[in-house]
Amino acid sequence: MIQKHGSARWQGGLRDGKGQVSTETGVLSNEDYSFAKRFGDQPGTNPEELIGAAHASCFSMALAAALEKAGVTAENIESTSTVSLEQKGPGFEITRVHLDVVATIPGASADQFREIAEDAKANCPVSKVLAGADITMSARLAE
Predict the structure, then answer these.
(1) Domain spans of the chain?
(2) CB–CB of 58/87 below 8 Å?
(3) Domain 47-141 sits in which CATH superfamily?
(4) Sorting pLDDT into bands at 50, 70 and 90, what band is 105?
(5) Are 55 and 127 in contact (CB under 8 A)?
(6) What b/e readout covers 22-37, taking b as 16+ CB neighbours within 10 angstroms?
(7) Which of 70, 137, 58, 63 is closest to 97 using CA atoms?
(8) pLDDT score for 143
(9) Is 36 helix (H, G, I), strand (E, B) or coil?
(10) Which one of 58, 79, 82, 94 is CB 3.0 to 4.6 Å from 98, fit for a cystine?
């Protein structure tokens, strides 16, 4: 079993408080986050952005593995994951996640690529964690 961890510290109330988020590797180290960074237009990180980055990176690796299994190798995979947070009743939920992927894969047909990308989307570990959200995808080969 592989285990990785992240940590967060929060001080104060929801709207006037602030926090710091860190990762095990130190890629993020006491990075500030706050209500304004999450729900407003103040620049900075927030949980949905971090989930999006995790999803895009996980999906890209799952796609590379699925392509190799099919006998093709991507020269390049560019993935973006857009995470939608919506108010539902008294709280908020991640309701939708949209993956947008463009890949350069010599020798792959558009149909083969879409089929493999759909499989990677369904089987990426982060997609599985986000299974309660509606996960959509647009996938195309680079021209």
Answers:
(1) 6-39, 47-141
(2) no
(3) K homology (KH) domain (3.30.300.20)
(4) very high
(5) yes
(6) beeeeebeebebbbeb
(7) 137
(8) 80
(9) helix
(10) 82
Element (H, E) at 45: none
Which strand (E) or helix (H) includes residue 40? none
Q: Show Cβ contacts of residue 39 under 8 Å, excluding neighbours closer than 6 positions.
A: none
What pLDDT, on the 0 to 100 scale, is given for residue 7?
97
pTM, two decimals, is 0.92
Burial class (CB in 10 A: 0-12, 13-18, 19+), 99: buried
**Cβ pair 40, 106 in contact under 8 A:** no
| Burial class (CB within 10 angstroms; exposed 0-12, middle 13-18, buried 19+) of 18 | middle
In angstroms, the CA 98 to CA 82 distance is 5
CA distance 98 to 51: 12
Do 56 and 79 meet the contact criterion of CB atoms below 8 Å apart?
A: yes
